[in-house]
Amino acid sequence: MTDCTVTTRVRQVNENQCHMCMPLGGVVALRGVEHSIALVHGSQGCSTYMRLANVEHFNEPIDIASSSLNEKQTIFGGEANLRKALDNVIRVYQPKVIGIMTSCLAETMGDDIERFIETYKNDREIREIDIIPVSTPSYNGTHTEGFWATTRAVVAYYARPTERHPGINVIVPNISPADIREIKRILDLMGLEYTLLPDYSLTLDRPFGGRYQKIAPGGTSTAGIARMAGAQATIQFGLTCPEPLSPGLFLEQQFGVPLINLPLPIGLDSMDLFVRTLHDLSRRPVPESLVLERGWLCDGMADAHKINAGARPAIYGEPELIYALAKLCMENGSIPAVIASGTQNSGLVGLLQPLLKDALEEPVILEEADFVTIEEAAVRKGANLAIGHSGGRYLTERQGIPGVRVGYPIHDRIGGQRILSVGYTGTLAFLDRFTNTLLEAKHGSYRRLRKEEMLNKKGVSNAKA
Ligand code: SF4
Fold first, then answer.
1. Closest among 95, 88, 104 to 140, alpha carbons compared
2. How many domains does the chain have?
């Protein structure tokens, strides 16, 4: 039994950070609401950066409006620019929902967004368009907090007292569109009526064909979000979601909808917990197809355990995902060398400690970490696998630690939106990628290492002669 080495705020200056900016996460969450568009109240550069980051990850056209603040508005306030931006967005896109995410600049200036919106709606006599403000200054949080804050703001805007119904709410963190589709498939298999939020499984992963539409079809309907207040329960994959940003907690406190906070259903134990919860809520038997998928995962784990026991992964990224991945590693015999998140206040350390208490070797847990710190810890702890988004590519480039891509954002591979990691099927797919990366590294290097060993021996015997 060991104590984990826990490090927080290891450096005063972040260099090559392990997170993205706060409104960027809000933009992703808002794409999960039907007929919506995001407007960033800030400079052009903010929304351009967010567009690029998302386009490279999702490989889809992603429009993000901007109020284009510049030096003048920094002094005189950004109301006029915001009104102009709203006029343009409504004329060009005809949305039903506009989410306004604030940038660092707008928050520092102290613009009163709620008053701006009220005045604008009254002046233009707007009744049919919902305009939702979300406070997302990046110095207050990362894209993870931006995602949760926006989801909570959407729930708080629409949820109203409503009659109780047998349906459930499912609230997901920032996972891939493929993961959302898999969770919906499992919910359908269990025969449950549900509202999943935010559902960007179609809006951020469009099938080819048909006419281009400025606002992609798909997303959770606002009527469905309103009904969340009457559900029998909320399942939220949000163990690390800060309480003030928790949409599920809001529904529980405001409308008495019981909150069931679960880990992301990655790995056998977490997925079993999800299925048991669905079984309890639906009172239906677990379908044979899920039992089969579970069996295939167990078979895959048995096949791969002798290889995976040698893995010492460095896992980094968003807290919800890395907690789930650390659990998966532990149940497959791989003790993480490093577990790192760029986020603060996620409670990650407290969650991980019981999980790692029996680990034979001591992992390093880093919060608010940057990649300089992660790289140093990975080398020091002898990591032989790097699991996470493309921000960690330097672990491979500089240190030769092979990488397994998962999470957000992924800019150095194609298909970030299609990476499947949840459910029995997704876990098995992830485990195969994990094991095969280890095998590839082994087979790609052992002849060279053997040759070096032989040459070294020869050098020794020549020297003796
Ligand atoms: S200024 Fe703030 S909101 Fe804009 S891109 Fe930079 S971190 Fe994000």
1. 104
2. 3
Instruction: Give 22 Cα–ligand 1 centroid separation in angstroms.
Output: 8
pTM of the model: 0.93
CB of residue 46 inside a 6 A radius of ligand 1:
yes
The finding on whether 404 has its CB within 6 A of some atom of ligand 1 is no
pLDDT bracket for residue 1 (50, 70, 90): very low
153 ligand 1 Cβ < 6 A:
no
Distance 50 CA to ligand 1 centre (A): 9
Q: Tell me what pLDDT residue 7 has.
A: 57
pLDDT, residue 2, reads 41
Half-sphere exposure of 450 (CA within 13 A, CB side): 6
Q: Is residue 425 assigned to a domain?
A: yes
User: Are 323 and 437 within one domain?
Assistant: yes
23 lines ligand 1 (CB under 6 A): yes
Looking at the structure, tell me whether residues 192 and 341 fall in a common domain.
no
105 and 233 within one domain:
no
Which residue of 138, 145, 150 sits with most ligand 1 atoms within 8 Å of its CB, as the best mutation to test the pocket?
138
Spacing, Cα 168 to ligand 1 middle (Å): 36
- Whether residues 321 and 436 fall in one domain: yes
- Are 257 and 296 within one domain? no
Q: What is the CATH number of the domain that holds 330?
A: 3.40.50.1980
My answer on whether 320 and 394 are in the same domain is yes
Domain boundary among 251, 282, 313: 282
Evaluated on CA atoms 143, 54, 414, 175, the torsion sign reads positive
Q: In what order do the strands lie in the sheet with 364-367?
A: 5-8, 364-367, 338-341, 313-317, 385-388, 403-405
Are the CB atoms for 335 and 312 separated by under 8 Å? yes
pLDDT tens digits along 314-344: 999 999 999 999 999 999 999 999 999 998 8
Enclosing domain of residue 228: 168-282
Q: Are 234 and 174 in contact (CB under 8 A)?
A: no
Residue 388 has a pLDDT of: 98
Mutate which of 20, 49, 52, 100 to test ligand 1's pocket (most atoms within 8 Å of Cβ)? Answer: 49
